[in-house]
Amino acid sequence: MALQQLDNLYRQTVMAYAQQPHHFHPVTPDDPCQVTKLNPTCGDVIHLAVTVADGRVKAMHFDGDGCAISMASASIMTDLMIGQTVGSALALAATFSKMTMGEAKDLSSLGEAKLLAGVVKFPARIKCATLAWHALTALLTETEGV
């Protein structure tokens, strides 16, 4: 696939997820496992709630306010993480983080999240792309004692 076609696919995918994010609904005090993370650089904020049962991510949703990259990344992440074991979810989050720094070699496990690899060219946008993933890592590490 030509570079221009990849760029177009990236833009289309990011915009589709940002405009109609999956698993986007309010995080409330009734959600037992939740975290809020802020990107002070640009003001993106995410509230993430996760339900873990039998060592697996059973459900996940988020709300917040942020740029298209931040919202798209959170949406893609929720699709990828539901059904994963806690260990797999943490490994995927680590791979995603490495990808945004240009350090990951095998991105096959990331599914559509690998389309966000282009943020490596824009260092100011890396925090936007990784905000939800860092929130998930913090939440799973805290609640599961990993």
Structure description:
The protein has about 150 residues and is of the alpha+beta class. The protein has one domain: Sufe protein. Chain: A (Alpha-Beta Complex). Helix content is about 45%, strand content about 20%. The protein has four helices and three strands; from the N terminus they run αβββααα. It has helices spanning about 5-20, 70-80, 85-100, 125-145; strands at about 35-40, 45-55, 55-65. The protein has a three-stranded antiparallel beta sheet with strand order 1-2-3. Strand 1 and strand 2 form a beta hairpin. Helix 1 (about 5-20) crosses helix 2 and helix 2 packs parallel to helix 4. It is globular and about 45 Å long. The termini are far apart. InterPro entries: NIF_FeS_clus_asmbl_NifU_N. Pfam families: NifU_N. This is SUF system NifU family Fe-S cluster assembly protein.
